[in-house]
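Re: beginner question about structure tokens

> Can someone show what the tokenized structure looks like for a real chain? I only ever see the sequence side.

Sure, here's an example I had lying around. Input first:
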Amino acid sequence: MAKKNTAEKVAIGTAIGVAAGAVAGFVTGILTAPKSGKATRKEIKDATVKTKATVEKKAVQTKAKAKVVAKDVAATAKEVKGRTEAAIAGARKGATTPTKKK
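And the corresponding structure tokens:
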């Protein structure tokens, strides 16, 4: 469960970062452009809709990628665990096997 929560947190954090960057850039552009209030409001609305779609798309992509990474990490951890257990078993066997004296 912890891995799932971490993957979701990464996806959410990335989506928030993308949204914040888009909003900051857009607001700067709007505030520095000389336009009427009506035109500015329409531009803000259009950009908000576009940004929302972009953020949703990026969030889905990031979540999917986070799931793949989480699966890879889990598989690697399982492999490392198996190797470690085999090494410990070999070490125990070697420790209990009497050595030959010359």
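Each token stands for a local structural state, so reading them left to right follows the chain. The mean pLDDT is 81.
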